[in-house]
Design goal:
9 strands; alpha/beta; 9-stranded mixed sheet; 12 helices
Amino acid sequence: MRFDSTTFGVVALAAYQPDWELFRTQLRSIQNQTHSQFQCLISADGGFAEVRDFVDRELGGDERFRVLGFEDRLGFYGNFERVLQHVPAEAAWIALSDQDDSWYPSKIESMLPRLNEVSLVAGQARVVRLPGNEVVTESTQRQNVGLDALLAQNQVTGSLCVFRRDLLDLALPFPRLNTISQVHDHWLAVCAKATGGALVVEDVVQDYVQHGGNVLGEVGGRKSIAKSFEHVTALSRKFQGSSSPLALLRTANDLSFGWRRVMADALRERVAAGTPGLEGGVAVFETGHGWVPTARALVSGLRSGDIALPCFVEFVAGVPVELFTKGRRK
C-alpha cells in the first residue's frame, strides 16, 4: 500500500456538546482539505440529532460527512474508541479530529506520504487562546523519543496525528483505567512506537484552540509544577472524592505509574515477544517492574529533556502508593 493523493481514509471526529461556531470552523477546515479522498465519521457522544442536523445544514449535504447515531455518553476516551470501531475496512489511514480546532488546508496531503515509512505520524500545532485568538505559542514542540520516554510522557496529540488503519488491530479495544489520565492518543502513540514506528515532525499543521471547555488543555505542551498540582487536586476531587493527602497520592499514582502500567501490560500481552525495542520500554512500567531500571529511565529522561520536570514530579508523588501496592500486584 502506497500512501499518496489517491489513498482513501477516514477522519474520525469525536463530538460532545460542541461550541457551534468552533465546530463550524473545524468542519469547514476538514471539508476544504486539499486531499479529498476521505470520509469524516463524527461520533456524537449524546445529542445525535442536533449534531447531525447542524452538520447537514452547514456542509450542504456533503456526503463525505456522516454522523453516527448514539445517545449514550461514554466520555472522550470511549467516544474516540467507538468512532474508531466504525472505521470501514477499505480505509487505509485515519486522522483524528477534535471538534474545536482549525486544520490548515494541506494537513492531510502533507502528512500522508510519511505513512510509507512509519505507522503513525504527528505534527505540531500553533496554540491560540479564546477569546481574541491570542497566540500562546507558535508550535507545540513535540519531539521524537524512545518507547520508555514516550510511555512516561506523551508526545503525540491526537488531533495532530495520522496513522495506518492496521494499527487498530493492535490498539482496539482500548485498555482501561478509571481516570482522566487514560487518553486515546497516548495509547495509539505507544502502540505505533512499539511496532511499525511513530514519527513526530516539525510541520505546524493546524491551530489548536484553547478555551474553557477543553477536556485536556495545551499550554505550549508543558505544564508548570504549580499547574500540575492544581491539575492533580482537581482530578483527585473528581475521581477520589477528596483532596486529602492520601487521595492526592492515589491520584498522582494513577496519573503516573497507574496509566503507564495499564499501557505497558497491554503491550506486553498484545505485541509479539522479541519485537525490537519492546522489552526495554515495557519493562520500565509493567506490573512487577524493577525500581532500578524505572528510576534510571525517569532520571535519564529528565536530564535529556525527553521528560519534563512537572511530569517527573508526578512520578515522584506516585512512588509511595506504588511502593505500597506493588507487591500485591505481582
